[in-house]
Amino acid sequence: MFRYLTAGESHGPQLTAIVEGIPSGLKLTEADINVDLARRQGGYGRGGRMQIETDRVHVLSGVRWGETIGSPITLVVENSDWVNWETRMSPYAEHRDDSIRVTRARPGHADLPGAMKYGQSDVRNILERSSARETAIRVAVGAVAKAYLSRFGIAVTGCVVELGGIKAVRPDLGVKALQEMIAASPVYSYDPKAELEMIAAIDRAKAAGDTLGGVVEVRVTGVPVGLGSHVQWDRRLDSRLAAAVMSIQAFKGVEVGAGFETARLPGSKVHDEIFFDEQRVSRGEQSGFYRKSNMAGGLEGGITNGEAIVVRGAMKPIPTLYQPLQSVDILTKEPFEATVERSDVCAVPAASVVAEAVVAIEIATAFMDKFGGDSVAETARNYSSYIEYLREF
Q1: Sheet with 73-78, side-by-side order of all strands
Q2: Rounded to 5 degrees, what are φ and ψ at 151?
Q3: For the chain, which ranges sit under pLDDT 70?
Q4: 245, 253 in Cβ contact below 8 A?
Q5: Mean pLDDT of the chain
Q6: The Cα angle at residue 150 between residues 144 and 153, in degrees rounded to 5
Q7: Is 163 helix (H, G, I), strand (E, B) or coil?
Q8: Is the distance from CB of 381 to CB of 152 less than 8 angstroms?
Q9: For residue 133, what pLDDT is reported?
Q10: How far apart are CA 341 and CA 165, in angstroms?
Q11: Which string of DSSP letters, residue by residue, matches 45-73?
Q12: Can you give the pLDDT at residue 11?
């Protein structure tokens, strides 16, 4: 069973995750994880915090000599900015200073509802944990999940498909070629023409003191039939994926496959017809069954159907604006213009990396649920046996 917890504040000493369920024998290094941490920090439109931090993971348990040993994995990402916040974020009562309390709630953040829920007169006690800084450690966990999935030929690819209303056109390329295009793009997209328009839109928003949102997409290829289940609501893989994507800070919508577009089309144009070709197995496919379209996004009845999983998430524009919005002081009840903390103009490219991570975590969880195994070798035997069963079905 794959599970994890994260801890830490935006300006605390570090972010921490404990990951449980990764079997022994998986090759894993800090460098594997740092690649994704660097991607999360990149992308056109990022702000001042990313000029301070250089995220690197430290693996403190669960890995020996470059391989997992089956015990919980502890991951730590230190906050470089902690040196400037040691007393302001101190756990010790003697450092308390009520003169630095934050009482002005920012629109679009968790500030006001969080302060009301937890009975806090200092909004910093809310914003430090609700900050998107937390996603750094989730990306580290996602990198572990991706390393596990790649051992079984499963690839997880995130990208930007829309930014500021500008849509990218997907080229007809294989997974590796697409990944190379995305990696080379400043906005993590695969459409060079749209990329230039997106960059220009970000520049205009910055000049206007505004921010931009967009849509990210994650595709998972190489997934076998049979992950997830229809028998209970919380075992449906599409519902778990939706929850994971919606858990990302600033995300306000999610769709699987054709998603909301299916509500606008007749059934004849929505459902993927099923075909059978016995030669597919001899060519190395997992089954003779296949579909010529993938409107369902690889999931039917909450179960993977062998096609690529396609999940998209909509990210709202970041609510911290350099042209401040109106709000109210939670103590005096007086109106004011919202305070401005360091922020991005657009974090949609970075969010695509986070979405990739949370999707990878859910796919890895479903894969472990299906195939188990205390070691990678045992899981591989279980998986190989299942693939042989599918080929004979």
Answers
A1: 3-7, 14-20, 73-78, 57-61
A2: -60, -25
A3: 48-52, 339-342
A4: no
A5: 95
A6: 160
A7: strand
A8: no
A9: 95
A10: 26
A11: T--THHHH----EEEEESEETTEE-SSPE
A12: 95
| Lookup result for tokens 């690889």 | 298
pLDDT value of position 6 = 98
End-to-end CA distance of the chain: 28
How many beta carbons lie within 10 A of that of residue 87, not counting itself?
12
Q: Measure CA 269 to chain center.
A: 30
Given a contact cutoff of 8 angstroms between Cβ atoms, the answer to whether 247 and 351 are in contact is no
Give the three-state DSSP class for 211: coil
Helix (H, G, I), strand (E, B) or coil at 195: helix
Residue positions counted in the chain: 393
CA distances (Å), 18 to each of 4, 127, 144, 156, 241, in order? 5, 22, 11, 22, 21
**Domains present along the chain, CATH in parentheses:** 3-392 (3.60.150.10)
Bridging pattern class, strands 63-64 and 67-68: antiparallel
* 309-336 exposure pattern, b = at least 16 Cβ within 10 A, e = fewer: bbbbbbbebbebbeeeeebbebeeeeee
Q: Compute the distance between CA of residue 82 and CA of residue 152 in angstroms, rounded to an integer.
A: 39
Question: Residue for token digits 């591989």?
Answer: 380
CA-wise closest residue to 352 among 5, 24, 46: 46
Rounded-to-integer distance, Cα 231 and Cα 228, Å: 9
Distances from the Cα of 78 to the Cαs of 15, 81, 170, 264, 386, in angstroms?
6, 9, 37, 47, 41
pLDDT at 342: 58
Classify residue 104 by its DSSP letter.
B
DSSP state of 127: H
Assess contact for 245 and 259: CB atoms under 8 A: no
Residues 6+ apart with CB under 8 A from 364: 2, 145, 146, 148, 149
Query: What is this structure's pTM?
Result: 0.95
Q: Indicate the DSSP class of residue 359.
A: H
Query: How many CB atoms are closer than 10 A to CB 191?
Result: 21
Q: What are phi and psi of 19, to 5 degrees?
A: -110, 125
Is residue 19 within 8 Å of 75, Cβ to Cβ?
Answer: yes
Half-sphere exposure of 2 (CA within 13 A, CB side): 25
